[in-house]
Specification:
By secondary structure, the protein is of the alpha/beta class. 51% of the residues lie in helices and 13% in strands. The strands form four sheets. An eight-stranded mixed beta sheet has the order 13-12-11-14-15-16-17-18, sandwiched between helices. A seven-stranded mixed beta sheet has the order 1-2-3-4-5-7-10, sandwiched between helices. Strands 6-8-9 form a three-stranded mixed beta sheet. β16 and β17 form a beta hairpin. α11 packs antiparallel against α12. The protein is globular and about 85 Å long.
Length: 709
């Protein structure tokens, strides 16, 4: 018996039924409506085969070597119009997976590559799960990051399998686990070597069909353990503590998180049918909230950004070098090594080279711990790191990333040395955050191979890279740089050479206004708290401490020189800088730090602000408007100047480069939600009452929206 349709195939041989997900012309499998309906039909065939004795076991696998199932189709979810429609979609999917769960034959899910969202919920409905040990294998339920919750039974099956607290950790964080970590939690029954995966899976499935039993012993928690960890008293305490932590983290902005918490906890005290119904109802309510719509729009934006490669031929990059072994250079070197690209770390000081290599290795070890790598995986990546106090190693590399201090004369000297040593075809990239790439190209024999690759600090965490086109950058150089960023696991955006590029130009407007607000006498804590409540990960003053006040000041001077008075610092900012504070790295900034941990506001700065304040602190609403609308105004100018190609690029940049709250959809999507006429009116108000820096940009006044209605 053999049947086949696009995306899903069923074959029965020697008592073993094999369901293979294989979406044509795609690297990933998705659980679309059509696939789920076809799955329902094929489960009927499996049931009938089991009744006739022809099917004695079921294997669920993927036809793709590096993807199991990547979850639901985001486009279908984003198109849902009402809560009732969304809830019914969930119910129908639950019914289908419940049939899988209740098949009268043993079921085995063979997981290789990403198994997330609905893919993991499908695997949870099987009796056993085995997974490949390849690093691409990841398991998780990321639905809350999209403003929804697992809607195919995940909130029911996961806590019953691995326990309430571990289940909540996965559902509320959206994190994805490597196979070994999933095995330790009891989510996976066995981890198989990737090279022998197909052979071992086939043997396990055949054995299951022969025995008419699960091929592996199930990991079951004792009744005492379940009572102690998941009984009513434990559930009450876990929910109370988790709810308090969520409120502290989200300030109440992400409704999917408390909803997922409530549904997951209460599922343990309900029948299967009642638990599934509450999950479906909650899914329906969440799927049509503004937060969900915005988060899904952001997901589509960021996924789309990685696919918008510029025209040009991508050159092969097999070896890399990083010049500058400071914190930033070491972090960039670690990114190459993480992807098993041999990288040569260069600095003229041997001690700095050794320190940089040590930091890069430490970052790899942290990554290994988080990802659950084997010792061999870590060893192979660490072996990619090399270093020297000489430029000689550049002769064999395909790309050189410069990461020396942010001074034009220093970078120009380094670029000259790089060009002398590097092979003629090597791409040369600068990690400058604000300096002109076109200026750095001057005097070079081959300026066409130079571009910007602006990594954000810390590079191992920040997902964005600005790929900067200088005036003489070739299309092939730009295309290769974009490809490098994608290979490093980052989201690249292409920007034209302009002071501050996109992120730092808009962020400078934000920081400039924060300084002027300090001048009014508002406290450091209050200013940061207002923006944290708005949804920013940290307030503007804390963020400046993280970046480094000296770095922020240098960028600010560059912006003021390029664009004039609207970027002029408030007098109080110059007074703060004159005290010599540099932020976290120096132990003192707007806050004080001990062993890099914050220990409260810097009292010396507090006294200085109190003595220098002028006027009256504005209201919370005014603070929020002045900071956010300043960014919107500058973003409109940046778009008009042609620095980037679309509002979408701005929103990707601000979300991934500054942490602008994703639930608001991005800076310019938020501007549309407020209304551009409202933004312009408030800017005029502040231009009259506060200063000319708020004068609405012509590019803002010319628009009715940033995004097409």
């Amino acid at each position: 018996m053999s049947e086949a349709v696009p995306d899903l195939h069923l074959e029965v041989r020697d008592g073993l039924a094999t369901l293979t997900f294989d979406r044509p012309d795609s690297k990933v499998n998705l659980l679309t409506r059509a696939v789920m309906l076809r799955l329902d039909e094929l489960l009927t065939a499996v049931e009938e085969g089991a009744q006739r004795g022809e099917v004695r076991a079921l294997l669920v696998k993927s036809g793709k070597r590096r993807n199991f199932i990547a979850g639901a189709d985001i486009e279908e979810l984003a198109a849902l119009k009402g809560a009732a429609e969304a809830a019914e979609l969930s119910r129908r999917g639950q019914e289908i997976l419940l049939r899988l769960d209740r098949l009268p034959v043993p079921t085995l899910a063979a997981i290789r590559g990403p198994c997330v969202g609905g893919g993991l919920e499908l695997a949870l409905a099987c009796d056993c799960r085995v997974a490949s040990n390849h690093p691409s294998t990841r398991l998780g339920l990321p639905e809350t990051r999209l403003g929804i919750l697992p809607g195919l039974g995940g909130t029911l099956r996961l806590p019953r399998l691995i326990g309430l607290q571990p289940a909540l950790d996965l559902i509320l964080s959206g994190q994805q686990l490597a196979a070994q970590r999933a095995k330790r939690l009891g989510l996976i029954d066995r981890v198989l070597d990737d090279e022998d995966f197909d052979v071992e899976v086939a043997a396990l499935a055949a054995e299951s069909a022969r025995l008419r039993a699960a091929p592996l012993p199930r990991q079951r928690r004792s009744a005492v353990s379940r009572l102690l960890k998941d009984g009513p008293p434990a559930r009450w305490l876990i929910e109370r503590l988790a709810r308090r932590a969520l409120l502290s983290q989200t300030k109440g902005h992400y409704p999917a998180l408390p909803a997922a918490l409530k549904v997951t906890v209460s599922s343990l005290g309900l029948s299967i049918e009642a638990a599934l119904e509450q999950e479906a109802e909650a899914f329906g309510r969440l799927a049509v909230t503004p937060e969900c719509k915005n988060l899904m729009a952001v997901f589509r934006l960021t996924e789309g950004a990685r696919k918008r490669a510029p025209a040009g031929e991508v050159k092969s990059v097999k070896r890399a070098a990083v010049v500058g072994a400071g914190v930033m250079g070491a972090g960039i070197a670690q990114l190459f090594a993480y992807q098993t690209i041999p990288v040569h770390l260069v600095d003229l000081d041997e001690a700095r080279v050794e320190a940089g290599l040590r930091r890069a290795r430490e970052l790899l070890e942290l990554a290994a711990e988080r990802a659950g790598w084997s010792g061999d995986h870590l060893k192979s990546r660490s072996a990619c790191l090399r270093g020297a106090a000489s430029y000689d190693g550049l002769k064999v590399v395909d790309v050189v990333v410069e990461a020396v201090p942010e001074r034009i004369e220093v970078k120009q000297e380094v670029f000259g040395r790089i060009e002398e040593r590097a092979q003629p075809a090597a791409l040369i990239a600068t990690n400058t955050s604000a300096l002109s790439v076109s200026e750095l190209q001057k005097g070079l024999e081959h300026p066409e191979r130079v571009c910007g690759l602006h990594f954000f600090y810390p590079p191992h965490r920040m997902p964005l890279i600005e790929v900067v086109r200088g005036s003489r950058t070739s299309d092939d150089t730009l295309a290769t740089a974009f490809d490098i960023a994608v290979r490093l696991g980052k989201t690249p955006i292409v920007v034209e050479d302009s002071p501050g590029f996109v992120v730092n130009r808009i962020l400078s407007a934000y920081f400039t206004e924060a300084g002027h607000l300090l001048q009014t006498g508002i406290s450091v804590e209050q200013l940061d708290q207002i923006m944290s409540r708005f949804g920013m990960p940290v307030g503007p003053l804390r963020l400046q401490d993280e970046i480094g006040l000296d770095v922020v000041a240098e960028v600010s001077r560059t912006m003021a020189a390029a664009f004039g008075e609207r970027f002029a610092s408030a007098p109080i900012v110059e007074a703060v800088l004159a005290t010599g504070v540099t932020g976290r790295k120096g132990g003192r900034g707007f806050y004080r730090y001990v062993d890099s941990r914050s220990r409260g506001v810097n009292k010396g700065i507090t006294r200085l602000l109190r003595e220098s304040s002028q006027g009256k602190p504005p209201s919370t609403a005014e603070v929020e408007e002045r900071l956010v609308f300043s960014m919107i105004n500058e973003a409109a100018r940046t778009l008009a100047d042609g620095v980037m190609d679309s509002p979408e690029t701005v929103d990707v940049a601000m979300i991934m480069g500054t942490g602008f709250p994703p639930f608001r959809g991005g800076l310019l999507r938020y501007a549309d939600a407020v209304g551009l006429s409202r933004v312009a009116d408030r800017l005029r108000h502040y231009a009259d009452s506060v200063g000319a820096r708020f004068e609405p940009a012509a590019a803002l006044l010319e628009r009715t929206t940033f995004y097409a209605a």
